[in-house]
## 1
Amino acid sequence: MDCVQQCKIRPILVSVRQALTVILLTSVAIPHLLLQDRISSPEFFTLIYQLIMADGKVYIFDTTLRDGEQVPGCKLNTKEKIELALALESLGVDIIEAGFPISSPGDFESVNQIARVMKETTVCGLTRAVQKDIEVAAEALKPARRPRIHTGIGTSDYHIKAKFNSTREEIIERAVQAVKWAKNFVDDVEFYAEDAGRTDNDYLARVIEAVIKAGATVVNIPDTTGYCLPHQYGEKIAYLINNVPNIDKAIISCHCHNDLGLATANSISGVLNGARQIECTINGLGERAGNTSLEEVVMILRQHANLGYYTDVNTRQLNPLSRLVSDTMRMPVQANKAIVGSNAFSHSSGIHQDGFLKDSQTYEIIAPEEVGADGSKIVLTARSGRSALAHRFQKIGYQYTRNDIDVLYANFLQIADTKKEVEDTDLHAMAKAYEATAVAN
Ligand code: KIV
Ligand code: ZN
């Protein structure tokens, strides 16, 4: 179901949920908050909103092909973009932001071609709050089964004064006009309040109310500069829920940048406070320090299923797609990157290796196959212990006793101190030397 359909059937869902809400509120939530004397707290209103609105589905809006492609050196041609879009659709993302059509003829072509080949996925094109941008995006999106225009404008005082030399009132007017103009072409219009992270909440609430009234189906609250702390970003979302009277007519979206390494935490905090869409990229690619990493938010919601949220992403495709994006964009993934880094399932210290070999769950919270990784790895370094050494010897065909391993271990440490990692070829050489001395004795 896309966001427009969601908005259309929402009244029916709301009626059903309202009945459930009354039961839940009167029997559980209100007595609980009453007991704690928190009946007028923001948590109370957030709770009511969540009970009425949420079915637990979090929409995944992938912007690898737009914000991700803004990374210097990551520019993609149309063929590469189509290949990645098809892989993203097969991964199960709900929305693909395919590009910024007015920015170049090449990007127009990419958005247009992607719009032709997507079957179920919503295809989105970015615009500024400028009529021409919107018209060009609408043209590029024409063949799409589910088109969405993503339009918006800066709302923080930094943007209003430095970028636009304008006033708050004028910015609201421009925002409303942009959404109304986009509505002439598509039903599904997402509005972004650029730099919402540093926008005064009161003013932001006024902007959001106005654009929803103008027809926005999704309202995007970007922490454009990656400035917010998780509790601040969450409070911003809660503030909108509590202070925008028509907020139930749109889905709230998180778009967080990673300048302080908080993009993932902020997006999750947004969801916990009522947002239902996360904008993210494969491998966390994006402007400057990047965006929220798709694989991280998807796995957080899956690992913490008790929170009651889910996505439609097929997690087994996460590692293969991470490699495809990395190869296509010529952008290596850091080894210690969560979920998709080459060390994400590697164990190197003796204490960890011993625990892992006894029961993988002692040091792994995700099974590698669940995210399509190659498998767990026991890496031999000077910090490794005897059980890891025995395990690796066994893996390459040597069955040694405890005594054998004691002797071999001393030898192993000498080699390990001279190298970063002891490889299978070193183990074969050690085994050969050990067996030769055993025969000689
Ligand atoms: O970071 C940002 O604010 C953006 C908007 C264009 C959505 O990328
Ligand atoms: Zn961005």
## 2
Amino acid sequence: MSDLDPDTRRLRTVLDGLDSEIGRLVSRRDSIAAELIRHKGKPPYDPAREHEIAGKDSALWLPLLRRVRTAEGARLTLSSPKPGAFPAEGFTLVAGPCSVDNRLEENLEVVARAGLGWVRAGAWKARTFPWSFQGEGLPALRRLRDGADRLKLKVVSEVLSELDAPAAVELVDVVQVGARNAQNFALLKQLAALGKPVLLKRGPSCTIEEWLGAAAYLDGHVPVTLCERGVRGFDPCFRNLLDLAGAVLARQLGGFQTFVDPSHGTGIAGLVVPMVLAARAAGLDGALVELHVAPHESPSDGDQALRVDELRDLVRALAPGEPERASKPDRVPVSSR
Ligand code: PEP
Ligand code: MN
């Protein structure tokens, strides 16, 4: 600072003084807020508080307070996690084809033979283009339910529209809210009233706060499990960017059971196994993965579907006592979807 003129030096000194005062205030606020949360015994996401803070919104304070609250929440370990849609203990693997298609029954057999208790498959598909396979709707969901019942599998399946929700919830064990519907508040309110446990995907551009805000529509009404499925990234290598840190943070802040979906989260089948293992190592609760007996024949998302042998490897790698090691990806990513 020695080559600065006296006025600049004086102003710099004032700024430095203010910066350290702000630093002290933020860390004092941080410890009081952490103490308050411990006292309440609840995670920091609090709709009433949210409202109160939004009332004092200003260009400076809202972002600052949000940053502080996010940081403080991440340091807390919840003593009593909320009930999720899946078993509270262990790591749950849900596998199945992207869509209910003409190989459904074979895919169900594979899931059951792998020793899994849960299957996924979509009867209504959210597709970018109207000419892509849209799913066969309620008849497909009935077929999924019947096939799963024969093999004693539980069913996770997505409902796209409020119109279909009442009939669909009767046929699933867990209803999936897809990424494109993560902030469809009318659908969330309806599902809160219908009473089925919900797997809530993260929207491709949802902040953690927005994702937890969406979960708050369901929280207290039905068991909720969050599912990180990748956010919009910058690198075209990946369909989406699996935000593992975001999943851990959402779990810590919101107290929800939290899964990952590395199939949609990467778009690359060869990355699914290592990402599931990473999610388990990070303390998450489960994973949703796509599987197909003939990935190239799948009417949707074949590029990211595990083959039968890959599912078997994954189940083996997740077995207790197995070293946490991902098998080497052995295929080149394909791009069409
Ligand atoms: C799916 O799980 O089949 C699906 C469409 O996922 P997402 O909503 O995450 O894209
Ligand atoms: Mn899919």
